[in-house]
Amino acid sequence: MTLREKIHWHYKNTPWFRRLVRRFKDQTLSGLARFGLALIRALPFDVAMRLAPRAGALIYRCMPELRELADRHLQIAFGTDFPRAERERIARESLVNAARMMVEIAHMDWLRPRLDEYVTLVGTEVVEEFRRRGSGAIVVTGHFGNWEIMAAYFARQGFDIAAVARRFYVDRINQMLMDFRTANGVEVILRDDTRNSARQLLSILKRGGILAMIVDQDTHAQSLSIPFFGRPARTPVAPVALALRRNLPLTAAFIERLPEGGHRITVDPLFDLPRSGDAMQDLRSGLEIMSRRIEEQVRRCPEQWMWWHKRWEHPPVAHLDLDGKFQYTERQSASPPGATERDIDEAGGRSAGT
Questions:
Q1: What pTM value is reported for the model?
Q2: pLDDT tens digits, residue range 231-252?
Q3: Measured between alpha carbons, how far is residue 220 from residues 18, 232, 237, 315, 322 in Å?
Q4: Buried b (16+ CB within 10 A) or exposed e, 80-107
Q5: pLDDT per residue over 48-90, tens digit each?
Q6: Cβ atoms within 10 A of the Cβ of 352, count?
Q7: Cβ(121)–Cβ(327) under 8 Å?
Q8: CA-CA distance, 163 to 101, in Å (whole number)?
Q9: Burial code of 122-158, b = ≥16 C-beta within 10 A, e = fewer?
């Protein structure tokens, strides 16, 4: 047994050693994060933004596993015939976007009062429709552009907004993220906080607020396998399930980084969700509409999406996902057996962490 194998064995089988490793990882990663943010804050915003492309390119060069993962996912999405040089450019620019995002997060205290100038909004009529209805709304998005800026922008516009998020695996960094979002007026609903998430989720909707949900990741939430770039991917059912069951408006919003600087937020018209009376088929059809819209946005600006998440690599989770409700064909179409609206309502709650 090699030294690495021995360490791995002790990590798996020795509780005190596992706690020690986790504590060390927590302190080390959170310390590096704080140091990095402090270093960025020490620079003027414009200078830090000019240096961000170099930082992103350096990360691309120094992290081969991340680079190879992004390349593999780009081949899944666009095919193996997609030029290698273009795949490399997109993967590198994706990391550059992440570096710029870190600069904006580090300088958020300076940037917050300037958001009205830094961000342009397209789709104001939809936003005003939310205000007029006052019934609560669900907005889905993806890890695109700087999604933290988008949430902060809507909070600054006076919207009561809550974001469903998963707990980051490093406790101190998780707390840093929660503190950052709270400081920007965004309530955080942790998906795995089963004691409080249901109450928080229903509260934001009853107050007529916006429930924001990022739906382009494979997370431990109740999902359905929905085509994404032509390949089945676990897709959280919560936003569509809640919208159908509670008759809530549902739409997508995306933030794009502009070449000249700043961002543009685009809020789509409300999704026209199917209401055939077949609850499960309506759920699946609604998820297909949502997933296609996410895919369209990624195709529009692929260099602003996060390509290193394992979007396609996990099968349905037994006793959690709803794939068993459908009899799939080879093309992954569904001919569902009977299902009740209660199935859908419970799916919405469980997949949102309730």
A1: 0.85
A2: 999 999 999 999 999 999 999 9
A3: 23, 16, 12, 12, 13
A4: eeeeeeebeebbbbbbbbbbbbbbbbbb
A5: 999 999 999 999 999 999 999 999 999 999 999 999 999 999 9
A6: 26
A7: no
A8: 18
A9: eeeebbebbeeeeebbbbbbbbbbbbbbbbbbbbbee
User: How remote is the C-alpha of 249 from its chain's centroid?
Assistant: 20
Query: Shortest CA distance to 311 belongs to which of 70, 59, 145, 67?
Result: 70
Is residue 239 within 8 Å of residue 265, measured between CB atoms?
no
pLDDT in tens, 17-44: 777 777 777 778 778 888 889 999 999 9
Q: How many CA atoms lie within 13 A of 117 on its CB side?
A: 5
Handedness of CA 181, 102, 37, 171 (dihedral sign): positive
User: 200 with 187: CB under 8 angstroms?
Assistant: yes
For residue 149, the surrounding DSSP H or E stretch is: helix 147-156
**Among residues 251, 17, 256, which one has the least CA distance to residue 121?**
256
Task: Identify the structural domains of the chain with CATH numbers, from first to last.
Answer: 3-109 (no CATH), 113-309+320-351 (3.40.1130)
